[in-house]
Amino acid sequence: QVQLVESGGGLVQAGGSLRLSCSASRSIFNIFVMGWYRQAPGNQRELVARISRGGESNYADSVQGRFTISRDNAKNTVYLQMNSLKPEDTAVYYCNAFPFIPNFWGQGTQVTVSS
Fold first, then answer.
1. Three-state secondary structure call for residue 74
2. 7-22 pLDDT, tens per residue?
3. d(CA 108, CA 36)
4. How far apart are the first and last CA of the chain?
5. 3-class DSSP state of 36
6. Which is nearest to 37 in space by CA: 97, 112, 85?
7. Phi then psi for 102, rounded to 5 degrees?
8. Distance (Å, whole) CA 52 – CA 42
């Protein structure tokens, strides 16, 4: 069974930056496209960014130009660099495969952006 553990969240002022990390309990990153998702209170979980095994990335319009997804297959880790954060980026952030696999969801990491 795969476990994904997200970290790096926190409280930051608008305009600030955070770097999220997602580590897997075993090597899966060579197999799957990986994605970062987020869920704000009252909202559905949404895909923020995804990255292919070869490193090609795609972003939601709302984060394009501000967020950067990257991966290190050797370390079984995927990252999300978030710059120019806005209050509307406040959410719990999760990583998962893309398309997501229900059994892969972890606890997520809370990101709170104050205005």
1. helix
2. 999 999 999 999 999 9
3. 10
4. 40
5. strand
6. 97
7. -50, -40
8. 30
